[in-house]
Amino acid sequence: MTTRNDAEKRDADDPLAPLRDLFDLPEGTIYLDGNSLGALPRATAARVQEVVTGEWGDALIESWNSAGWIALPHRVGDKIARLVGAGAGELVVADSTSVNVYKVLKAALGLAEPGRDVIVSERTNFPTDLYIAQSVAREHGCELVLLEPGEQPADRLDERVAVLMLTHVNYRTGAMWDMAGITAQAHERGVLTVWDLCHSAGAVPVDLTGAGADFAIGCGYKFLNGGPGAPAYVWASPRHADRFAQPLSGWMGHAAPFAFTTDYEPAPGIARYVSGTPGVIATAALECGVDTLLAAEPYGGLAALRRKSLELTRLFADLVEERVPGFAIESPRDDERRGSQVCLSRPEGGYAIVQALIARGVVGDFRVGSDGLPDILRFGVTPLYTRFVDVWDAVEQLRQVMESAEWRDERFDQRLAVT
Amino acid sequence: MTTRNDAEKRDADDPLAPLRDLFDLPEGTIYLDGNSLGALPRATAARVQEVVTGEWGDALIESWNSAGWIALPHRVGDKIARLVGAGAGELVVADSTSVNVYKVLKAALGLAEPGRDVIVSERTNFPTDLYIAQSVAREHGCELVLLEPGEQPADRLDERVAVLMLTHVNYRTGAMWDMAGITAQAHERGVLTVWDLCHSAGAVPVDLTGAGADFAIGCGYKFLNGGPGAPAYVWASPRHADRFAQPLSGWMGHAAPFAFTTDYEPAPGIARYVSGTPGVIATAALECGVDTLLAAEPYGGLAALRRKSLELTRLFADLVEERVPGFAIESPRDDERRGSQVCLSRPEGGYAIVQALIARGVVGDFRVGSDGLPDILRFGVTPLYTRFVDVWDAVEQLRQVMESAEWRDERFDQRLAVT
């Protein structure tokens, strides 16, 4: 059994430990919710201040040129591309994940072989992906088929399927799909793939190019540490660049926005996926977040972060099994199939247990079950700043919460607007 | 003829003059481009810092509840509603203008009488509105009919027309449509109206309720002073609330986002127009901008700002006519038809003249002509911070630029990425 001393020793020996100093973390909190909202990078506050007071306040409209605002979605996009196995010029920062799901589903349907009118996704996908897919399916007269838990995508990919849309790492369980294998199966069957990277980019090595994927989208506020509601991003394979349509054909995706012509002409490649005027302050904050991941490159980059992440989640699951009875571990134990989080379930009390942990300074989150799925207690690890001792202490706090039964106190069952 | 002393005296007598102190304006610049990017409010930098370091950095995920992030699109939306004659709960902050144009055009087409398959707009509308309308028209098998300059909307509103989409104040000329009159004409003919308020909200009194309008959208970064690429907003008449569809059906527009159900169920009313996770930092900055306009309420609010704006633009046009020969004034001289800007044209040199003025510290902007329209030199006035003496000095600088012919210097003809 791992002791707290063992955990401290692993931190002392951890070559990635210095990366934690890139963050402003609150004292006394063990933050295991970076899979929902990444922590604040130390560089962000000053950079945002520079954008607000210097670039906006002093230089005003001139900053679209002098401060490079106009190129910001592309500059930050190129940085994110390095984290997900994409090339420069293939990925842009734009809009929200939801809006980008809409864009890529429409693009994929436009490229699909004639007669294919089914979109396949999975019932446990993050709801916004499903809600948008429902809308697109309705608009295009398509059927939306949802994989049930345990089903493999290949079983549903017949000659009617146009697009397979999966989230690489599941938000509920942390289960990870084999992107390369499934993409190959899809392509063998003439199906295009859309990958949602919200819960993988920045925590798990992603290789869109190597996997031969078609489209990808992801958010900026989880493992990319871009801040609350940070802009999202969108990628299209260079195979499809210049070929796909953009329904949200805003002026910033025009081939010549400042020609102010009456007719839309899409910019070459991925640039057409920039729609309206980019949010400069938010994109600048996102860049600081992405930079925290690029700062790990001299330390072995995402491969090294991934090794540490797996060690952290394995330790978490092992300690819960050893020390805190009564929980099922809903995340895969197999390293190949586990993202960067550990999810627990229990027949009752999940919400209140999470609240009791938060009161003790251990921040995970709760995801309600629906459609017969269990309620989930989620604990995300962010290898840039999560320590082995944090995992040890978190499980110890969970043990104390259960042993004391303090979670049964009614103050922990007061539902908040955001749970 | 107005002298500089006269202008100084008008500033000294101006009851709105103290409002200028709400802004951090750079020394030595006469900023006449608030119709493109509003100036930095004095409160914004500290508020953004509080959101970044306090709400995000210290409180982390908890701030969705404790700092009210989840309600931010509605709270700021309610404030914008007060500027455009809308009620509380009718308007939300979300996405970009381009994305919101898409939403409302789709919603309007969904509500239109069966068989109507024409969208009417105007050739000189801001291009992004036209680009999105082209996309929507293509998707719905509709025809997009564009009014030529000088045409009246009523002439084109026949029984085939579903939607009339106009920008209240034209971005090129500052010409303002009669929102109430045109909306009434449209409704008589069974046509729904979409109003783009980008160049009017915050500078011109807008009364969506009084006009009986159907849908409206607008941007946050012009007269609302929300910062570069600030989030946009969207309004639907309460007549249509609960009835219209939202193609970008993201989870934050769901009736119960944190129930994580598989099927989309739209939130009541305008809340369904929030799509993805809202950009917290940017929306907080926008709130500071909107607050600068609400701060004018004790001074007479938008009615008082409008009076000053008209005096400023009238003075600008008068001084150009009196003192700087060779320019045509493209903005309406009639107060009823003029927004908050003065646009000039000239057979040659427009771009270089604007650059020469910028080099002298007078910031307006240039809009290239297309489709046979002339190039435009634009000068926006923001009654919150533009002074009469600024107008006088700007015209004097223009006089000197023309008299010296310095604009012919080749350094002023180096085209920038953003012009």
UniProtKB/TrEMBL annotation, chains A, B:
Keywords on record: Hydrolase, Pyridine nucleotide biosynthesis, Pyridoxal phosphate
Tree of life domain:
Bacteria
Pfam families named in the record: KYNU_C
Give the GO terms filed under biological process for this record.
Answer: anthranilate metabolic process; L-kynurenine catabolic process; L-tryptophan catabolic process to kynurenine; NAD+ biosynthetic process; quinolinate biosynthetic process
Q: Where on the chain is N6-(pyridoxal phosphate)lysine found, per UniProt?
A: 222
Q: Recorded GO terms, molecular function? A: kynureninase activity; pyridoxal phosphate binding
One annotated Gene Ontology cellular component of this protein: cytoplasm
Q: Does the record carry Ribonucleoprotein as a key word?
A: no
Assembly and interaction partners: Homodimer.
Q: Which HAMAP family match?
A: Kynureninase
PANTHER family reported for this sequence? KYNURENINASE
Task: Explain the purpose of this protein.
Answer: Catalyzes the cleavage of L-kynurenine (L-Kyn) and L-3-hydroxykynurenine (L-3OHKyn) into anthranilic acid (AA) and 3-hydroxyanthranilic acid (3-OHAA), respectively.
Family matches, as NCBIfam families: kynureninase
The molecule here is called: Kynureninase
| Species annotation | Nocardioides terrae
Q: Which gene encodes it?
A: kynU
